[in-house]
Amino acid sequence: MGRGRTLEEFRREFPDETRCAAFLFAQRWPEGFVCPGCGRRRAVALKSRPRLYECLDCGRQTSVTAGTVMHRSKLPLTTWFWAAHLMATHSNGMSARQLEDQLGVTYKTAWLLTQKLRRSMVDPDRDLLEGVVEVDQTEMPFRVGDTFFEPGNAGKILVAGAVEVIDRETGRSRPRRKGGKYLDTRSGRLRLALIEDNSARSLEAFVRANVKPGATLLTDGHASYPGLRDDYRHDPRVVGKMAANIVLPWTHRAFALMKRWALGTYHGLRRKHVTAYLDEFVFRYNRRFHRHVSFEKILALAAHAPPTSYRDVINRKSAPPTTSRST
């Protein structure tokens, strides 16, 4: 597992606005500055304001944060960098309450920071899962308002999950004959998404959005999956009396970690923003062996993510809606 920066190493590498701006510049324009006004590449950095660059052809001034998730933010770049570092590298992430204490900002500021960074944790160009992929779904309770979280009385949402099954010996997915056992494997990349119900429409939409055609699908034999057999190699495993976590071990391990994380770090997720929280969990899970590059990745994504205002965050709805309430 690649070691991430220690806090002391991080402090030395990003001590001030200038160093942070230079790092963000490299993430945003890896091949050199490109003026968003005229498209030319000649520019000079303004010494009085480390975030600004002035185009030598058209005179337009462009901030390294303009048009990114940090657009028009009045926070220092050092605060953004510390928040990204803590959220990306901490094994359980950081709640807004924890960031409030760590960064010395107000709760509202910490909350908006976490929400904006979570929405930067999905690479729009990420590859689909391939090879051998376990697919399953689970129920998850969500927190209602600020009331004490009681899982037995909470509303429930349905979450679909897909995990690549990797052969330990070769480090790649290796399909077996249908019905064959997948021994000595580990989990690869993960995808999670909120689904409306257990219907074929919902499950097929999730699979097609996350798994490459031609892949082998390991499922629990649910009646909603057979419609995928024209584009995928379906290898159902009927659970019967056997525990589901034995038949589909890697999806169930991911689900167990997700639920424990949601309850331990956030004391239950709220329904409205649950999609962003699932994206956060997937981001760290997929980089658990590469924690040393997770900070760079989140800032690279944030540098190309569209601006998100407070109004955008609070008005954003997690689709699809919840399925039911427990009695």
Q: What would you note in describing this structure?
A:
- The chain is α+β, with helices and mostly antiparallel strands and 327 residues long.
- Among the domains are: 1-66, no CATH class; 132-289, Ribonuclease H-like superfamily/Ribonuclease H (Nucleotidyltransferase, domain 5, 2-Layer Sandwich).
- 36% of the residues lie in helices and 17% in strands.
- The radius of gyration is 22 Å and the shape is globular.
Which class best fits the helix and strand makeup? alpha+beta
Uncertain stretches of 5 or more adjacent residues: 318-327
- General shape: globular
CATH homologous superfamily title of the domain at 132-289 = Ribonuclease H-like superfamily/Ribonuclease H
Fraction of residues in helices? 25-40%
Largest sheet: 6 strands, mixed
Rg over CA atoms, rounded to whole Å, is 22 Å
Core attributes:
globular; six-stranded mixed sheet; 327 residues; disordered C terminus; 9 strands; Nucleotidyltransferase, domain 5; 36% helix; three-stranded antiparallel sheet; alpha+beta; single chain
Concise overview:
By secondary structure, the chain is α+β, with helices and mostly antiparallel strands. 36% of the residues lie in helices and 17% in strands. α3 (77-89) crosses α10 and α4 (96-103) packs across α5.
Give the helix/strand layout.
Elements: H1 7-13, H2 17-28, E1 43-45, E2 52-55, E3 61-63, H3 77-89, H4 96-103, H5 107-118, E4 132-142, E5 155-167, E6 185-195, H6 200-210, E7 216-219, E8 233-236, H7 244-247, H8 249-266, H9 274-285, H10 291-304, H11 310-315, E9 324-325
Parallel strand pairs: 4-7, 7-8
Antiparallel strand pairs: 1-2, 2-3, 4-5, 5-6, 5-9
Helix pairs in contact: 3-10, 4-5
